[in-house]
């Protein structure tokens, strides 16, 4: 984890193939946004969590594909 001027970057590592690792970096843009890496060719999205009161929050996940319209399966998610 590394603190930044805009929030945090959190890294995780797992074994890939022999002698290699798969690294994943998530950016937390404080106070509401999380940017999650997506595999190439998949739609992109981010998570937005906005506190409403002490016990509730509003959760939104905008999803888009910069290259083509979203397919029905992606819209259903």
Query: Major beta sheet, specifics?
Result: 7 strands, antiparallel
- Given the C-alpha coordinates, what overall shape results? flat
Count of discrete alpha- or pi-helical segments spanning 4 or more residues: 1
Beta-strand content bin = over 45%
Low-confidence stretches: none
Number of strands: 7
Write structural notes for this entry.
This protein is mainly beta. Helix content is 6%, strand content 48%. Strands 1, 2, 3, 4, 5, 6 and 7 form a 7-stranded antiparallel β-sheet that branches. Strand 1 (2-3) and strand 2 form a beta hairpin. The protein is flat and about 50 Å long. The model has no long low-confidence stretch (mean pLDDT 88).
In summary, what is this structure?
By secondary structure, this protein is mainly β.
Strands, helices and their partners?
Blueprint: E1 2-3, E2 7-15, E3 21-29, E4 33-35, E5 44-51, E6 57-60, E7 63-64, H1 72-76
Antiparallel strand pairs: 1-2, 2-3, 3-4, 4-5, 5-6, 5-7
What keywords describe this structure?
single chain; 77 residues; mainly beta; seven-stranded antiparallel sheet; 1 helix; 7 strands; 6% helix; flat
């Amino acid at each position: 984890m590394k603190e930044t001027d805009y929030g945090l970057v959190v890294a995780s590592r797992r074994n890939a193939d022999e002698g290699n690792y798969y690294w994943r970096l998530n950016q937390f843009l404080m106070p509401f946004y999380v940017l999650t890496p997506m595999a190439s060719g998949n739609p992109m999205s981010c998570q937005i969590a906005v506190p409403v009161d002490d016990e509730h929050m509003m959760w939104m996940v905008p999803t888009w594909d910069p290259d083509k319209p979203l397919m029905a399966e992606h819209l259903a998610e």
